[in-house]
Amino acid sequence: MDKLHGIRIVDMSRVLAGPLAGQMLADLGAEVIKIEQPGAGDEARHYGPPFFGEQEEGGTAFFLAANRNKRSVTVDFSKPEGSRIVRQLIEKSDVVIENFRVGTLARYGLDYAALSADNPGLVYCSLTGFGQSGPYAKRPGYDAIFQSMGGLMSSIGYPDDHPAGGPMRTGLSITDVITSLYADVAIIAAVHARAHNGGRGDYIDVALLDSTVAAMSHYAMYYLISGQMLPRRGNYGNGGVPSQVFQCRDGSVMLTVGNDAQFVRFCRALGSPEWADDSRFSTGVERIRNRDELIPILEAHFATRSVAQCLNALVAADIPAGAINNIEQVFADSQVVSRNLRTPVQEDARAPLDVIANPIRYASDPINTYRRPPLLGEHTDEVLSALLGYTQEELGRLADSGVISRCPSSINIT
């Protein structure tokens, strides 16, 4: 994959949103150098158990999910000599990704204003909780806070009058994932624009709160044009009926009947074509109006059948439907297997490791490079010697003074 070949990125981010943004660009062919604190590294290296391999290798699920195809360089940029090393790397780079709290990096001369003076073409992307402006700009936050404040939690869960009612967060740190993708779009667009504006870079301010609000999409637009808010419906859809989970004898299925023609096929598939002729259910509008009459009929039907029976009938009738898979079942699914969504990293001396494949499929230039997420400081010697010309003696001195740390496997690279 060489879509971004020749683009060098200094990734100073930690935890999830920033590292995910860097990983996507690395998958697309960019050279991504991950800057980490000596001795500690990215906090995500310690978000265990479980650990893959030895704990000191940083093999947590959190870290492994967001840092493949990168090189790790350990530099303490709170020390003057360390900040100078990072500035030297950035002078030779195209993009910086960082997610420190507002104003932190300016203390070390690593903010956009300082760095762009020496590298006018620099694209600098800051990912923060609330952005660089506004009354909350300096407040800390994590994914769940932005799910809460951005409206996402209010849209998830059962209605308040349900026994299990109330707002609910997603299990996945979804606002981090969403924000990383907005950041990637912004970075790629800025790098493209640089080629057409005389080589000027840009500063990008991406906030998790902003990204969450934007991701509310049609839910937010529903409010903006009507002044009303869509109710929480649990596993019921807010559109066509039926669109929800149904409990079978041995599990559950999710289905969506999106139009009247599908409803006719749906009824035939379930062996009850007369439902489609019932005036209460014959049109989408009537099914919504009479939801409370239709759903109990369907629930009773599904409860007497197995998941396999229901899915076979629905798929044969071209009705969108699927089982409620846990993660083990996901990776055993024939479609997931055929799409190679579980893929091994390139072989090295360590234990075999599978990762989640990038979902982007190019016809002519596939993404097929998956290098293991780096050990802490694994590439410090390699990068500082090759890019900045540091000798082994100089690297040894820097390590002795605590400015860098060296991974044993990287020492004496020639």
Give me some keywords for this one.
six-stranded parallel β-sheet, 414 residues, 12% strand, three-stranded antiparallel β-sheet, formyl-coa transferase, domain 3, 2 domains, elongated, Rossmann fold
Explain what you see.
- This protein has 414 residues and is an alpha/beta fold.
- The protein folds into two domains: 8-215 and 341-410, Rossmann fold; 243-332, 2-Layer Sandwich (formyl-coa transferase, domain 3).
- The protein has helices spanning 17-27, 61-64, 80-91, 112-118, 143-149, 152-155, 174-194, 208-215, 217-226, 260-269, 274-277, 284-289, 291-303, 307-316, 327-332, 334-338, 380-388, 392-400, and strands spanning 8-11, 31-36, 70-74, 95-98, 123-128, 202-207, 243-247, 252-256, 321-323, 342-344, 354-356.
- It has a six-stranded parallel sheet, with helices on both faces. It has a three-stranded antiparallel sheet with strand order 7-8-9, covered by helices on one side.
- The mean pLDDT is 93.
